[in-house]
Amino acid sequence: MAERRYGVNQRRRTKGQQESFFDYTLLFIVLFLLAFGLVMIYSTSSYDGSIQHGDSAFYLKRQVTSTIIGLAAMIVVANIPYHFWERFAVLGYVVSIVLILLIIPFGVEANGAKRWFRIFGMSIQPAEIAKLCMILFLASLICRMGRRIREIKGFMIVLGIPLPVSLLVWQITENMSSAIIIFGIAVLMLFVSSPDYKRFILLGLAGVAVCALAVFVIVSMANADAGSLGVRGTRILAWLDPEAYASGKGFQTLQALYAIGSGGILGKGLGQSMQKLGFLPEAQNDMIFSIICEELGLFGAISILLLFILLIWRFMVIANNAPDLFGALLVVGVMGHIAIQVILNVAVVTNTIPNTGISLPFISYGGSSVLFLMIEIGMVLSVGRGIRLKDL
């Protein structure tokens, strides 16, 4: 009898050793951010929806549709072994470039920028596709290169891969923030794959030097001939002194700062923002974090940032325990995408960096953004399902 019980326990333990891991904490954080985003989108956009479209829930309904599609895509991708996508890595890289080029003849212009395709009533942004394809392609490339990535030639190859896509996104779609994110994803994936950190220190110093030089040149040109500056040059000047450009490029930044300052510690209360009543342009998009600060105060803003930090932590847990390098790099790429985008959005809203126009992941209004973010989360969950629990 004792032997029979011992055999049953052994079979149960063997079964437990083969059980897959599923990160419910990560899933809960993502679902909470999505739900919170829907609440804030309705709170932020109800006034504009009523004035411009005659429906206070206009933006909410569209975002709900995109969110449902994104959740369905996440479930499908999470149940597909992540190595299945490796065979499409090169194709995805090429397709992302082609789609960006097709913006020139077929793109739809909105708010002075040509960045979208209109497909079945839904706006698709090729830059979002490019971010996903870049993660997939770089993960596959780094795995294939192996130890060659430690050599200068291999290092420069990986660093040069995102440059054509970043330049096309910057020049064709006039979306510098997405170009920065695409290149930043590559740098982070390369960083975790290469043991030589001196190269990254030099790369960071070079980047800071280039940015400082660009600011110096723009300020010098403004003193000599302000009319010679383009839109981006004017944005940098507005960043340095937003009050001097209060009627132009500094208007949005100033209104966002007013919203943040008026929120105080606990905020005015959900739905009580004043800046969203026609004062702050694109409040439901790039500037939604300022409305969070105004309505929920510093407490609400910090709470959301802590949730993003917890999300990054869950990514790190999955990456550290991934079954192989390809899976780990996929998770690192997604982590880099979301982390960089959150940092850029908060930095823009608080005027820490020049206004580049970037959405807050899972929270800002944007159908294609939430759709492809959910696909990326599905890939992360798929990698997590490949982890085998040794002891329950």
Secondary structure layout plus pairing:
Layout: H1 2-17, H2 24-53, H3 58-78, H4 89-106, E1 108-110, E2 113-119, E3 122-124, H5 126-145, H6 152-160, H7 162-172, H8 176-193, H9 198-224, H10 231-240, H11 251-263, H12 288-320, H13 325-349, H14 367-385
Quick structural summary:
This protein has 392 residues and is mainly alpha-helical. The protein is 69% helix and 3% strand.
Based on helices, strands and strand pairing, what is the structural class?
A: mainly alpha
Strand order of the largest sheet: 1-2-3
H and E order? HHHHEEEHHHHHHHHHH
Global geometry: globular
Output mean pLDDT.
86
Structure keywords:
mainly alpha, 392 residues, disordered N terminus, three-stranded antiparallel sheet, 14 helices, globular
Please explain how this structure is put together.
The chain is mainly alpha-helical and 392 residues long. Among the domains are: 83-195, no CATH class; 197-223. The protein is 69% helix and 3% strand. It is built from 14 helices and three strands. Strands 1-2-3 form a three-stranded antiparallel beta sheet, with helices on both faces. The model is unreliable at 1-17 (pLDDT under 50).
